Task: structure prediction
Amino acid sequence: MAAQIEAILGIEEASNLRSDFNELITSDDCNYGEVEDLLMGYGLEMDYLDQLMW
Result:
């Protein structure tokens, strides 16, 4: 199981990621590559996507 995002990024940066993720997935043109780029921008792999979705 992957470590919690907050443990890796810290609470404030994890909150920023969650906000950016929510904004991205509610946009009309969101795609897999953009989600992957967002996570990579925070130094995370797609393995952490499930933590953002719940």
Q: What stands out?
A: The longest helix spans residues 11-25.
